[in-house]
Amino acid sequence: MMIPRVLIPVETLDMASPALTTARRFFPTAPCHLLHVLPAAPQTVSSLGGPVIMIGTGEPAHREAEQQLSALGNGEVVSGSDPASEIVRRTFTQEFDLVVMGTSGRRGLARALLGSIAERVVRESALPVITVRHGEPEPTSRILVMTDFSSAANRAYGAVQQYFPGAEVHLMHVVSPTALTAPVSLPPAGRAITASSLIARNREWIQEAREQLATLGGGEIVEGDPAEVALERARSGMYGLIALGTAGRGGVERLMFGSVAQRIVRESPVPVLTARALDPDSSMNGPSSFRLNDNGGSLGA
Fold it and tell me: For bias kind Polar residues, which ranges apply (predicted)?
C-alpha cells in the first residue's frame, strides 16, 4: 500500500472536523498537512435566527489560529480572500498526493461557502480529492467505482487501487437510455431520434461497455440516471467510498460535472473520491498521476 501525503483543508480548528476524522480513519499512518485559511478581511457569519459571529483577521487572530491548529497536527494558517485558490495551488506543488476536505460548514453562510469551495477544488485540483459531508466515515472495505471509461475515471480507479489495496472494489458503468451521446465509441443518436434507434444504440452501448469492463476485470452495467444510481448505492450502506472521474474547467465539461459528479459530491452520505484528467502539458508527473495499463493495473503517468 502506498501511503499518501494528505492535504487537509479545514474550516474549523477542532478534532471533530469531518475532513480530519476521515483522513485519520482512512490513512492512520499518513503524513497529514492541515491548511486553514483566514479571511483577508473581517467577516460576520450567522445562521438564520442564530448568533452573529465575527471571524477576525490580523496578527492576533492569526496567532490564535496557529495555536489551535498546532494542537491538531502539522500544518499552516494563511490569510486570503480565495480559499479555493489557496487549496488548488498546493495541489500543483507535488508536495502532496491526495486532498481530503469537507463539503459543508457549521454555520449558515459558511455551509454554502464551504460547499462552493469544495466543488471548485474538485473541478480544478491536480490531485484526487476525497470529499466528506459529515460524521465519522464507515470502513472502506467495499468501494464503488463509477466508470465511463474516460481518462478521469481511470485516474480515480487508479487512486483507489493505490491507496485502498485491501478493499473490495466494485466497478459499475451506468447506461442512460435517453442520453443523446454515449461515453463509448458509438455514433451519436443524431437529430432524427426514434425509440427504435435509441434501443438499438443502447444495445450496442451495453455491448461495448461490457467489453471495456472485461478489460478492467469485470463489473456491473446498470441502466438509469448515473447520479441517482450512485446515490442509491451510497445510501444502501453497502459501500464506504464512492469513486468517479470528473470533467475539467469549462464549457461542456463543466456541464457534465454539474449534472453528475457535482450532485454526487453534494448529496452522498459516504465520502466521495474524485479525480479529473490532467491536461496533456501538465507538469504533474509524480505518484499522484495515474493511468491504467491494459490489465487494469495502476501505473505512474
Answer: 282-301
Residues 73 and 204 in one domain: no
Q: Are residues 29 and 169 in the same domain?
A: no
Containing 206, the helix (H) or strand (E) segment is helix 195-215
CB 7 within 8 A of CB 33: yes
Residue 78 host element (H or E): strand 75-79
**pTM of the shown model:** 0.81
Say whether both 189 and 125 belong to one domain. Answer: no
Across 88-97, 193-202, 227-236, 243-252, least confident range: 243-252
Q: Which of 67, 69, 14 is nearest to 36 (CA)?
A: 69
CA 57 vs CA 9, 39, 67, 73, 156: distances in Å: 18, 7, 15, 22, 38
Q: Are residues 60 and 127 in the same domain?
A: yes
How far is 56 from 35, CA to CA, in rounded Å?
A: 17
Q: What residues make up the domain containing 213?
A: 142-300
β-pair partners for 13: none
Residue 186 and residue 74 share a domain: no
pLDDT tens figures, 11-70: 888 888 899 999 999 999 999 999 999 887 655 544 444 544 444 556 888 889 999 999
Torsion from C-alpha of 242, 243, 244, 247, nearest 10 degrees? 100
Q: What is the CATH number of the domain that holds 57?
A: 3.40.50.620
- Residue 13: Cβ within 10 Å count: 20
Q: Does residue 112 lie within any of the structural domains?
A: yes
Q: Are 29 and 53 spatial neighbours (Cβ–Cβ below 8 Å)?
A: no
Local structure of 218: helix, strand or coil? coil
CB atoms < 10 A from the CB of 50, how many?
10
